[in-house]
Design goal:
The structure holds two protein chains of two kinds.
Chain A lengths: L21 H15 L5 H10 L2 H6 L2 H15 L5 H12 L5 H4 L1 H9 L1
Helix pairs in contact in A: 1-4, 2-4
Chain B lengths: L25 H15 L5 H13 L2 H13 L1 H9 L1 H7 L8 E6 L4 E6 L8 H4 L4 H4 L1 H9 L1 H7 L9 E6 L4 E6 L11 H6 L3 H5 L7
Parallel strand pairs in B: 1-4, 2-3
Helix pairs in contact in B: 3-4, 4-5, 8-9
The chains are: A mainly alpha, B alpha/beta.
Chain lengths: ~110, ~210
Amino acid sequence: MGGLIDVMPGPPVDRDEHDYALWEKRVDALMVLASAKGYFTVDGLRRALEDMGEESFETMTYYERWIASVTQNLIESGAFTIEELRAQMEQVQARGDTYGEASLDSGKEQADA
Amino acid sequence: MPHDGHDHVSPSGHPYRPDQDAPLTHWQVMEIAVRELLVEKGIATAEEIQAQIDSMDRRSPALGAKVVARAWSDEDFKARLLADGSAACREMGIEVDALKLIVVENTEDVHNLVVCTLCSCYPRNVLGLPPDWYKQRAYRTRAVREPRTVLKEFGVELPGTTALRVHDSTADMRYLVLPKRPDGAEGWSEEQLAEIVSRDSMIGVAVPQI
């Protein structure tokens, strides 16, 4: 889980770093904007993360957990429904097999670049 | 791949960004869908989302380094910074939003190290987004269990006489380390000083070197 009390010290810290991908930065931005607009708080983000269970912390990356939590909080606060989300995800998925194809906005950015 | 023989070129003829040509994941689909729904519902505009990313991209350890260099050069500023980190940053035109920024000073006798054991709380407004290792379980557990060993791995060997304080960040309260000014930098300008202040030194896993 997120909070770690009784875990024995782990292996050496892996100091490799990666630049954040555009989709990760967007998740971050959605979190900041949605909370600034009052749809949920950082505690709501945290609560949904904790509810995911230990396995999520083994299998999902940081921003994967975040988008799951952001989405859940937005549904709970009535921003959109599960049904709307499902339909939109299907539409996105149908656009192609890469992020560049599926995200219309980034296609535009590339054309402008 | 959808475009045989043109794996790295989008339909517009431009290459994809390197991080966008891997197979689309479930969570990326969710990000795109949520973003589009928020725009469709009028909750956020595409411009707002991009502006938020741009503003995060502008935040880097260079901001924190400017604050440290000012504190090294101006005793009164340093006193204000240690008393109220958020207010002192604002004074320099650095917006820390609602975050309570607490600045802890490294001295001959005390070394400070910052961690977020829970997750990833970090003074992002003055350092940008945290490095991967800051969010890693190994760092989050070991920084409190065996901080001196962790520091050694990062290349910082503390004398046994130096007290080590580990600060656990929270969502509402972030720590920034004010590193000890190294000897030999007397008479340096703030700009020169800022150049030797690394991100890691403001987390406490490095010390400024000349």
